[in-house]
Design a protein that fits this description.
The protein is an alpha+beta fold. It has one helix and four strands, in the order ββββα. Strands 1-2 form a two-stranded antiparallel sheet. Strands 3-4 form a two-stranded antiparallel sheet. Strand 1 and strand 2 form a beta hairpin. The longest helix has 8 residues. The radius of gyration is 24 Å and the shape is elongated.
Length: 80
């Protein structure tokens, strides 16, 4: 087996099935997202604050945003 694969045992923890994650597969943080694809379980760490760091690293937008409400009537003219 390679280092990216390891045999582990499943066990019960109350009403939940669980497994111990070996040290070389530890995830950062305290929370993770788990989803199922066929018979595979995918576990991904929740990385908090990474979106803000990514947005801060981007160059500012220089293009003006279009005025999307040009064709709409003024709010006072709307009849409900």
């Amino acid at each position: 087996m390679s280092t990216s694969e390891r045999h582990v045992r499943l066990f019960r923890n109350g009403r939940n099935q669980a497994l111990r994650i070996p040290r070389e597969f530890e995830l950062e943080g305290q929370e993770a997202i788990i989803h199922k694809e066929g018979d595979r379980l995918i576990v991904e760490p929740i990385r908090k604050g990474r979106l803000l760091a990514l947005l801060a690293s981007l160059d500012p937008l220089t293009e003006p945003f279009p005025d999307i409400d040009d064709d709409l009537p003024p709010l006072d003219d709307v009849q409900l």
